[in-house]
Amino acid sequence: MGGEPGRHAVDGIRLQRQCAAFAPRDGAGDVQPGGGVFRQAGGGQGGAGAGACATGPGLCSYFGAPVFAHGVNNIYENGNNLWNGRDDTVGPIRKGYQEAAKKLGYGEREGNLAYYSADLGMAGYGVFFRKPLKPGAWRLYKYHDIDRVRAFRLMGVSTLFFEGAVSGITAYQMIVEYFKK
Fold this sequence. Notes:
Layout: H1 7-18, H2 37-54, H3 57-84, H4 92-103, H5 108-129, H6 151-154, H7 157-178
């Protein structure tokens, strides 16, 4: 998988550049500035977090706000890496994880592992355990469990594939981070 330090980040940037086919396009078919996989992945996270916060303070506090923060952090890190040709940008949220790990007697590596674990955990919860309303659900007084369905059942094939690909990249980064010396 490559013995050079930081190589996984460079490979990730190459992958993101190769995935320009997924970049958002305007009406003429031209790629919009600032578009690409990194924006779509982080933007999707940020949008999911904001949507969860719009449903009320309960879901926002334990799911929406952390997902939104991770999404914005991913946009910042990946955007800065692509824009400046770097592979070592650390956003404020990841830095918080690293600082918390240091205060507990661990290193940056463990902070990064916690960050990736939280990212994967929130993605898994959002896809497999969160139960949004079914299309066409209505209520008289309140929604019941029968009015809800697991999120993955409402997602299209391409959306599920994209979610799996992004989670796979995160898992790969986590494995590389784990085996760092």
